[in-house]
Amino acid sequence: MGLIKEFKEFSMRGNVLDLAIGVIIGAAFGKIVSSLVNDVLMPPIGLLLGGLDFSNFSIILKDAVDKTPAVALKYGLFINQIIDFVIVAFTIFLLIKGVNKFKRKAEEAPVAPPEPTKEELLLAEIRDILKAK
């Protein structure tokens, strides 16, 4: 029972749950970005380049024979994935930049000096009296 209890404590820590949530949201965000690239960005780019569809770009290494499919390097799909990556990386960059901006503002805010304790006030008064004599 000790191993199960220890695993439960480990899996219920805040940072493990935060990581799991981040992975799930990241996967969903990746699907959104893929759709953005494939369905929104690439069609106009292909149109501007003369009606090209990047997903169809490939180099046939070996033609299809009977039931064996062709062997191809699908570099058009690779181009789409690169664009996906750049969009995700830029979005994460903007997110981190925003978080750092807020952190800097919090660090730059002046911190009020702590209130002196009664002992410190009493010592200051004694020093002032001794200096006056």
Characteristics:
single chain; 133 residues; mainly alpha; two-stranded antiparallel sheet; 71% helix; 5% strand
What does this structure look like?
This protein is mainly alpha-helical. A two-stranded antiparallel sheet has the order 1-2. It has a single domain, classed as Large-conductance mechanosensitive channel, MscL, domain 1 (Non-ribosomal Peptide Synthetase Peptidyl Carrier Protein, Chain A), CATH 1.10.1200. α2 crosses α3. The chain has 4 helices and 2 strands, in the order ααββαα.
Ends: how far apart?
75 Å
Largest sheet: 2 strands, antiparallel
Mean pLDDT over all positions? 82
Tell me the radius of gyration: 31 Å
The total of beta strands comes to 2
CATH homologous group name: Large-conductance mechanosensitive channel, MscL, domain 1
Q: Flag low-confidence runs.
A: none
Largest sheet, order of strands side by side? 1-2
CATH topology: Non-ribosomal Peptide Synthetase Peptidyl Carrier Protein, Chain A
Estimate the strand proportion.
5-15%
Number of domains: 1
- Named CATH architecture: Orthogonal Bundle
Tell me the helix content. Answer: over 70%
The count of helical stretches stands at 4
**H/E order of the elements?**
HHEEHH
Structural class designation: mainly alpha
CATH class: Mainly Alpha
Q: Write down the overall geometry.
A: elongated
